[in-house]
Amino acid sequence: MKNYISLSDIENLDLAIAEGLQLKNNNTVANVGKGKTLGMLFFNPSLRTRLSTEKAAKLLGMEVMVMNADKDGWALEFEDGAIMNSNKAEHIKEAAAVLSQYCDIIAVRAFPGLEDKAKDEEDLVMKSFKKYATVPVVNLESATGHPLQALTDAMTITELQKTKKPKVVLTWAPHPRALPQSVPNSFVEVMQRMDVEFVIANPPGYDLNPQVKKDTKVFHNQDEALKDADFVYVKNWSSYENYGKILSEDSSWTFSEQKVQLTNDAKVMHCLPVRRNVVIDDAVLDSPNSVVIQQAGNRTYAAQVVLKRLLENLE
Ligand code: CP
């Protein structure tokens, strides 16, 4: 693996999942990262991604440098040929080249603006780091995807599944803020690569990017989709069709105890942070059905697999 920008950078998903679970169960501390440095740049807030990736790097023997790039760094220009006479003080060409001398791997978080679909779909920040850095780049959640979260989710389902081919439902739930489609996009991509019966439930107007969704079945009736589910992944996203807009805050889509009753005693997942009693009710999050804490714990081992593979490929 040369970079981890999207899930497609993992060739053999089953092997990556198995390696992650092995790292977790053997509590393996490898020395492959000794003398190497991970630099993490955050253009947006984070709790899990920041700390689990730092922990993963340290378990591999790496040094870690973290920067809140939105607050502490120079404002970066990403457009080629820009006349930099406004507020952007540094071009990504210099920034990425300089960082590549300080770091052996660069990891970046940069959310979409959710105003200009075409611009967000370019994933300009992540692509520019990949283009101008001379070291591997890791996506810590970009405008269009969150592949570290997706690998974690695949590991969590694998370790908890009781049947060979479980039914997995990704369901939209309400939220007061407009959120990116990055997490659901990557979750859809990873489920399409696993041996699961996978469906999506969302209100009309919330269908995900057709190029991501492909032929995955979409229900506009949540109750119908939840029938016999073994895993339910609850997540809000803003509209893709009416880009970045909140079209509904319908609380009948909030994931409640009554919704769990419709499933096959499903394990309930969420990437976190979660707004209690808006996205998922207390009664579910505080019940044995919820696996959100275990899921967040797996973030460390997913990050460890990715960093280990990148380190093993350094020249
Ligand atoms: N799930 C996730 O990415 O969490 P953070 O935003 O806290 O990193």
**Strand element count:** 11
Rg over CA atoms: 19 Å
What characterizes the major β-sheet? 5 strands, parallel
Bound molecules: phosphoric acid mono(formamide)ester
As a percent range, the share of helical residues equals: 25-40%
Q: Spell the H/E element sequence.
A: HEHEHEEHEHHEHEHEHEHEHEHHH
* N/C terminus separation: 12 Å
How big a fraction of the residues is strand? 5-15%
- Structural class assignment: alpha/beta
Average pLDDT figure: 97
Enumerate the spans where pLDDT stays under 50 for 5 or more consecutive residues.
none
Strand order of the largest sheet: 9-8-7-10-11
Number of helices: 14
Shape: globular
Subunit structure: Homotrimer.
Catalytic activity: N(2)-succinyl-L-ornithine + carbamoyl phosphate = N(2)-succinyl-L-citrulline + phosphate + H(+)
Pfam family, one: OTCace_N
GO molecular function, one term: amino acid binding
Describe the structure in your own words.
This protein has helices at about 15-25, 50-60, 70, 90-100, 115-120, 125-130, 145-160, 180-190, 210-215, 220-225, 255-260, 280-285, 290-295, 300-310, and strands at about 35-40, 65, 75, 90, 105-110, 135-140, 165-170, 195-200, 215-220, 230-235, 265-270. The chain is of the alpha/beta class and about 325 residues long. The strands form three sheets. Strands 9-8-7-10-11 form a five-stranded parallel β-sheet. The site of phosphoric acid mono(formamide)ester has 9 residues, from helix 2.
